[in-house]
């Protein structure tokens, strides 16, 4: 733990694995969120960096039990550097409030960290270049549960082509840690199709139930 103590003494904020720490090891994995955010901000792995205003790293509680993963930044997100702002963001806030959570109690990130031109769907090569960043964010946060919102987020996160309507209501897992994943509709879609809010509510109830359990298995 010498390197952890050194970073702390230097005033560098670090985040240590929470419930997934291997107790047989004397050194916990450390990911510095500021360092990761800086690395993403300077990323030029794909052509999206040419048109972005700024990258959108993520926002929220780095110790959150619930990680929400969306698709990619839109125009407002690109301008403000924050995911899920505008009407879709306000609806997401209301959805969280309905199950007793605030935006500050969760962590919100996207599959892509840069805005695709015209808000088009991400290309496979763009997702591939951003995937390691998202994996490190998940490792950094160590959530108990992931909520994938929208078709693009769900299919890319879980590497599936199943329609989102058929992915709902099922439990998936992400990564080697097999973190449980629940899929629901994107708030922007719900604004266009308000009749589907009933289904999204059922997904949120499932999220609430899983988070209330002593352990998710």
Please give a structural write-up.
Helix content is 41%, strand content 13%. Strand 7 and strand 8 form a beta hairpin. It has one domain: Uracil-DNA glycosylase-like domain (Uracil-DNA Glycosylase, subunit E, 3-Layer(aba) Sandwich). The protein is built from nine helices and eight strands. The protein is α/β, with parallel strands linked by helices and 217 residues long. It is globular and about 40 Å long.
Summarize, please.
This protein is an alpha/beta fold and 217 residues long. Helices cover 41% and strands 13% of the residues.
What does the largest sheet look like? 6 strands, mixed
pLDDT < 50 runs, ≥5 residues: 1-28
Percent of residues in beta strands? Answer: 5-15%
Q: Superfamily at the CATH H level? A: Uracil-DNA glycosylase-like domain
Query: What general outline do the C-alpha atoms trace?
Result: globular
Give the integer mean of the pLDDT values.
88
């Amino acid at each position: 733990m010498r390197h952890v103590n050194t970073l702390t003494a230097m005033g560098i904020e670090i985040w240590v694995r929470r419930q997934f720490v291997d107790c047989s090891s004397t050194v916990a994995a450390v990911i510095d969120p500021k360092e990761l955010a800086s690395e993403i901000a300077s990323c030029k792995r794909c052509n999206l960096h040419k048109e972005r205003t700024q990258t959108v790293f993520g926002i929220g509680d780095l110790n959150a039990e619930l990680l929400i993963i969306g698709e990619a930044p839109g125009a407002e997100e690109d301008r403000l550097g924050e995911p899920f702002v505008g009407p879709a963001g306000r609806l997401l806030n209301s959805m969280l409030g309905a199950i007793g959570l605030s935006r500050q109690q969760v962590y919100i990130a996207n599959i892509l960290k840069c805005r695709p031109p015209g808000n088009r769907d991400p290309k496979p090569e763009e997702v591939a270049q951003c995937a390691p960043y998202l994996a490190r964010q998940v490792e950094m946060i160590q959530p108990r549960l992931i909520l994938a919102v929208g078709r693009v987020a769900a299919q890319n996160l879980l590497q599936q082509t199943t329609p989102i309507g058929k992915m709902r209501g099922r439990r998936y897992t992400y990564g080697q840690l097999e973190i449980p994943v629940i899929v629901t509709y994107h708030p922007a879609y719900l604004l266009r199709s308000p009749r589907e809010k009933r289904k999204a509510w059922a997904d949120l109830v499932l999220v609430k139930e899983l988070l209330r359990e002593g352990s998710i298995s």
